[in-house]
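Quick start: read one record
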Amino acid sequence: MTQEKALRTPLACLYHWEKTRPDTIHFTQPTGNGQVVDYTWKQAMDQARRMAAYLRSLNLPEHSQIALLGKNSAHWIIADWAIWLAGHVTVPLYPTLNAETVRYILDHSGSRVLFVGKLDDWEMMKPGVPADMPVITLPLAPETEGQRWDDIVARTEPMQDNPDRELDELATIVYTSGSTGQPKGVMQSFRAMAVCGTLMDQVFPANENDRMLSYLPLAHVAERLAVENNSTYHGFRVYFAESLETFVSDLRRARPTIFFSVPRLWTKFQLGVMAKLPKKKQDVLFRIPILGKKVKRKILEQLGLEHVRIAVTGAAPLPPASVDWYRSLGLELLEAYGMSENMAYSHFTRPGAQRTGYVGHANPQVECRIGDNGEILVKSPAQMMGYFKEPEKTAECMTPDGFFKTGDMGQIDEQGRLRITGRVKELFKTSKGKYVAPVPIENRLGAHPKVEAVCVGGANQPATFALLLLSEETRAIINDQNIRDGIATELQSMMKEINASLDPHEQLEFAVIVKEPWTIDNGALTPTMKIRRNVIEERYEPHIDRWFRTREKVIWES
């Protein structure tokens, strides 16, 4: 069988599960107060068919863009299916965008209809929606103008045919979260979905008995690939998180066998354990054969991860010490690397072939090389069709022989494993005129058990410095002067050790412990919890001269 024949679209997979496992539960959706609703394949597809029939009745132009705005839910995915069944293109929007960005994406994409789902701050986003745009509200959505999903489904007969889409048709336009500038619309085809759903089996095979918890934004390709697309191709059950406050109970309900998270959350999980069971005590207990095994098992149970057979981290670097810590618990944490531009299908750590600090080998049929300037160049079978309405930007990011310029810098070891060493554009010069790569320094500082996030700066300054956000647990107790002094001493010692391994122009002059948390809401983090370097640098820029004048090694922001 040729690869072309082996590739099936997501719609073909949906028809398969609808026919072969109609009464199997596919989605488990929390509805508040500890209650959940289950949807079988038959029920989910019945709703998708009814909504698709309604979308057809609108007589929109063929392959129209339809926007989807909301937090993760069963109906977010069902709406995505309905859009495809009706012959249209999905434009997902992050549920944390401001009104200005919402308006930009809706205008730029030319979206004809907007699905509004579960949201925390709809009133803030609502002004970005044109007054004449048709709105359909999903279950769990805030009260607003427009038609209700349940009403449309109740009065509309389901479509009876099984339309499919060509592999090279446009399936979705994903607007990159971006750390700078206006988001770009990445056009992805059904082929990209098929490649991800099919070829990843050669790296790790998922199956109908797996379980995943969906909580990272489905508007991001990583969650869309790992959860929606993966479950569509392999038929496993998807649970949804209700809120940050219920996350632990949501995780325990799901008992996931595959768990994907981003470094910020892996770090928070680890810091939470460290707060209850300090590292020194762990080291002692782990060395006791039988007891150590029980303690490690108990930690995974408390995290809700005791059934996980595949644990993945991606979207940004995770400090090597954290990776090693999870692996010491028996959780083989695998690092992944990819971008919206290749549907996150680029690199993945092979089980049993991991190297701490590396994101693994290239995925099947992916080619990777390092450019003359140290930039990682990737050619993926899930490569984008281009940036929507921006052919010049598309051309700029491609090499003449079809490799995508990732903007990341890296190295490939003798076994073909890739290491990310920073961003090409994140390199900065100090006033001494030499370049500094901040990411490796940030990774080392981020290994401190009380540090949650790091941003290293120093562009056009006499030396580099670090901005440190302490963990939530630590921030709660820093009014105690003895604790503050202890943290300052630990950080000074750590900085001295790090500086000893750096070139003189890279060495840290001081570290500032920031007061205000960095969050998605205040713009310091992207929706996937990566730091927005330009936002953070702009926020603290007025204080830099004063910090240099203090000549202190650890400064507490006032």
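The domain at 3-238 is CATH 3.40.50.980 (Rossmann fold).
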